[in-house]
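I am still learning, so would you mind making up any protein sequence you like and the tokens describing how it folds?
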Amino acid sequence: MISVTDNAINRIFEVSKKQKIKKDFFRVSISGGGCQGFQYNFNFENKVNEDDQVFQFKNIKILVDNTSLEILNGCKIDFITDLMGSYFKIDNPKASSTCGCGTSFSI
């Protein structure tokens, strides 16, 4: 299971409306790369794949594939605005270290 803060839900909704994105889902996934070995990816999609889990948070549906969910299970997705800028922040209990910007991590 993952949790998503109201700030993140509101930001996903705002971006989809502002950019007139006609996609039904917001995908969160993990890929190899980044300075720490893995990185988080975010995008909008219309299609649910066979290995996807769908999580409903208010008016937002989030997709996570099963492989990414193994690493994301127990995480909290937030949207932060601070001196570094505005960005999605994932508090992942399985990450043993992260890079300075928080977009890549190792387990």
